[in-house]
From TrEMBL:
GO terms for biological process: cell differentiation; lipid catabolic process; meiotic cell cycle; piRNA processing; spermatogenesis. Residues 136-163 form the PLD phosphodiesterase domain. It is found in: Mitochondrion outer membrane. Keywords: Differentiation, Endonuclease, Hydrolase, Lipid degradation, Lipid metabolism, Meiosis, Membrane, Metal-binding, Mitochondrion, Mitochondrion outer membrane, Nuclease, Spermatogenesis, Transmembrane, Transmembrane helix. Belongs to the phospholipase D family. MitoPLD/Zucchini subfamily. GO terms for cellular component: mitochondrial outer membrane. InterPro entries: PLD-like_dom, PLD_domain, PLipase_D/transphosphatidylase. This is Mitochondrial cardiolipin hydrolase. It is a single-pass membrane protein. It holds the Pfam family PLDc_2. The gene is PLD6. It comes from Pantherophis guttatus.
Amino acid sequence: MWRVVLAVGLGAAFEAVLGWLLRRRRPASATASEVIFFPSRVTCTEELLAGAPCACPLPHGESALGRLLVRVLAARRSLDLCLFAFSSPQLGRAVVLLHRRGVRIRLVVDADYMALRGSQIGPLRKAGIQVRHDQDSGYMHHKFAIVDKKVLITGSLNWTTQAIQTNRENVLVVEDQALVNIFLEEFEKIWENYNPVNYTFFSKHEKTGIENG
Ligand SMILES: [Zn+2]
């Protein structure tokens, strides 16, 4: 009996490792421009985030969220984020992972949506990531990311589980340096604009620690 159990167990483990290796062999889509449409089917993102095979019951194939994660996790030097709302735990984990690898993270968010239920902003700040927010009456409504100052990720998608799993959204990944530079310039402008030393008044948002790190 135990032989059968062992054989089945080994078989499952073998399949998990084989599947993982096969998926890893898939040409990394991190070299060309692409469009990712949402909603994303629910798949396991553990392999991408932990970098190890996973045998959990969730499907382990490709998904829109998986493709977005691959693009974000490709960062080696810097990740500049300009997001209206950020509550996706998988994307939050990816950003913390990059931060721990030494990637310079800068995150700009909308002040009114920082406290959204499940917001990643608190955990990200606790991890030591720099977060700045607007002090405007209008929304900081962008949803773009710049990876290594070379790849632009932009579109309609808020980085929330609700949007990822239920909304029709588009995300465009572009490797056009001229276009990336324009977004970079705008990011630098916003980053400087939201520098706490430039704050000209104190709104309800500034009372609890303006910036980390
Ligand atoms: Zn899994």
